[in-house]
Amino acid sequence: MIAKLIVFDQAGRKTAHQLSLHPKPSGASELKLVMETSAEHFESWLFFFLRDHGAYIETTDPAAVAAALNLPPDEEGIVELKG
Predict the structure, then answer these.
(1) What sign results for the dihedral spanned by CA atoms 66, 72, 78, 82?
(2) CB within 8 A of 55, min separation 6: which ones?
(3) Closest CA to 34 of 2, 56, 11
(4) For residues 44, 31, 61 and 7, what is the CA-based torsion angle, rounded to 10 degrees?
(5) What is the pTM of this model?
(6) Angle of CA points 65, 27, 22, to nearest 5°
(7) pLDDT digits 0-9 by tens, 27-70
């Protein structure tokens, strides 16, 4: 699965940040923001905050990303990436 957080800087330039799904002991998945040396939790509150500022997620599996954020599969701001 491919998933990227798309954000815009003050000049309007788009940058993409890799996201990945990680299994939880409960059998569900959690979404993490992948950085050079670590992966940090990416939660729904942060998604909503960033979405309010123009960010969105591009992914090949919108349903899996939405489930990991505990959101409905058709949540605004989670966009299917056609491959």
Answers:
(1) positive
(2) 5, 6, 7, 8, 77
(3) 2
(4) 60
(5) 0.90
(6) 50
(7) 788 999 998 888 899 999 999 999 999 999 999 999 999 999 99
